[in-house]
Amino acid sequence: MDAEAHIFSARCDSSAIGTNSLKSRRVALAHDWLTGMRGGEKCLEILCRIFPDAEIHTLLHRRGSLSQTIENMRIKTSPLQMIPGIDRHYRHWLPLMPAAARTWRVGEVDLVFSLSHCVAKSVRTPADVPHVCYCFTPMRYAWQLRDAYLDRWSNRPLRRAAAKILLNRLREWDRRTADGVDHFIAISETVRERIATCYGRTSTLIPPPVDVDFYTPAAVARENFYLCVSALVPYKRIERAVEACTRSKRRLVVIGEGPERKSLEAIAGPNVSFLGRASDDDIRDHLRRCRALLFPGEEDFGITPIEALACGAPVIALGKGGVAETVDNRVGRVYADDSIDGLVAAIDAWEAMGTPHDAVEGRRRAERFSTAHFQERIVDFLDRVTRRPKPTREPLFKGPISTRRDRDTKSKSTP
Length: 415
Prior knowledge:
Elements (H helix, E strand, L loop, with lengths): L19 H4 L3 E5 L7 H12 L4 E4 L9 H4 L2 E3 L9 H4 L7 H5 L9 E6 L14 E5 L10 H6 L5 H21 L5 E4 L2 H11 L4 E2 L20 E4 L8 H11 L3 E4 L5 H7 L4 E5 L3 H10 L2 E4 L7 H8 L4 E4 L13 E4 L4 H13 L6 H9 L3 H17 L16 H10 L2
Parallel strand pairs: 1-2, 1-4, 2-3, 4-5, 5-6, 6-7, 8-9, 8-11, 9-10, 11-12, 12-13
């Protein structure tokens, strides 16, 4: 089996960090957009520390929204940067993003490293330069969120038809540009399966980092409120937590900002508080004091639940996606019914059992995803792939690649 199909085990010797062969490499980094410090940007920050002389290519950059480590880098944007207000409404410009990404020019480099959930992996590289993609997920809009996006236009058939054509083209473009990647790294087993299904490619598993030195337990009492920490965008499904707590009259604190905030506030009862953006210190304080973190969406990995476990907080999560790989009933509650009723029932059952969770086990799991472990794994992987000749890629599957949904639909329609 291809070595990249195996989960990567880091070498723990100190020589993996700061290896001379990597220090001398000229590196280009690519990231979809830079508008705030979320999970992807925290991964990028570590790459910036490893390669402080690298140039970052991105669609757009909201200056001052990132850590100083990233802000100090040389950042090159696409023509989308010139559109007024683009940093607030960039999702509306999705149809232009593939063309904008093709304007990136990496120059003379020895390695290209893209961090991608949308278009960053399409960065063009010289023929003899290895391209490593740290894949958060194949393009969401074209694959796992395609049907949800189309459902928004169910009452407008012409716009739905136009959106369907666009998303079909984006899917083909996304699949085609995967051929420009030499090595895929997946953030979870869930994403590793998606890479195989969508692109027909193998990948190495290296989970993203969690700052377990910052997110730590504290000698404070847990209080009677539930917590959500998330960007307020549709696929996070925060409305389920808001409606579940409103219906059951449980206190809920929501930390985060995004285009869904007004609609969430409209359905929230007086027991739900919206704090907007918060500092890392404030988030840690709430994780240390909350009764439990609610995580009602299907996530690619789920860094926030790991941060909660690192603080000793229980997690009540939908048992789908990457979070199902890290959270179970020992450290909170996992539920299968993907609905508001399912979340209410999960909270009811957990409370009826006396809110069981093993805080020590949660902390132990979180420590497996430390920043130091992530850096060791990434450096070791890059050191290995840059020492050997650029590979000839072979697809994992032969013939047309279809999604699981496509295959299920076909099997149901076949006599």
